[in-house]
Amino acid sequence: MASLSKGPIAPLSPVLLAGLAARPIPAKLLQPIFNAAIKQMHQQHPGVFDRMTSVNSPRFLIDPVDLPFSFVMDTHQTAPSLEIVQAFKDEQELYTQAAIRGPLVLLIELLEGRIDGDALFFSRDLVVEGDTEAVLALRNAVDGADIDVHNDLLRLFGNFAKPADMAAQVAGKIFQRFTKDLNVLSQATLAPLQRKCDAQAASIEELEETVTTLKKQVRRRAGKTA
């Protein structure tokens, strides 16, 4: 839910479109899902929360920029929580020690340790604010936890885990295809604008060269008349 000044620009993706569709849904209807998710994570990976005690179990604002809401994650050792926060909420009232902002897919990949967090932070695909020591501790904790969001969430379905897995695989293929289609659409839409920007940049460069040449001529004439 980050504004342009606070985080990366949300990419055109299925997540962004799904987020727009989910905007009218009250947070209280979605909250039980995330209560179950953080409980499952605590059961499967208690070491993550044990390690966070070294930095006093901080609270984090997790901000997927392509969704209309964010999350406050409390890393309490025995009672962690993951609370949905609507876009209109004043972040100063959340009492978090740090914020991590970026597209949802990248945040999940970072949680699973499948991507280089340093490279992402350097490229500004992810933005970190606040207590960097707390963020570093969280990153180190999840890096060694072997987290698999897909498999961890499947355990919530119990005996229905297998059909849920099949449905998730189908949804994943649709998601990947839709992502490729949106990338093509985005490139086709932005291509004319990019050409205009390139033409303007070339014109500006030409004008700068002309101005530089004129300045040199003025200096020469001034030197001759001195």
From TrEMBL:
Domain of life, source organism: Bacteria
Alphabetic keyword roster: Coiled coil
Stretches assigned to coiled coil: 197-224
Residues covered by the SCP2 domain: 84-142
InterPro entries according to UniProt: SCP2_sterol-bd_dom (IPR003033), SCP2_sterol-bd_dom_sf (IPR036527)
Record-linked Pfam families: SCP2
Protein name: Putative lipid carrier protein
Source organism per UniProt: Candidatus Terasakiella magnetica
Lineage of source species: Bacteria, Pseudomonadati, Pseudomonadota, Alphaproteobacteria, Rhodospirillales
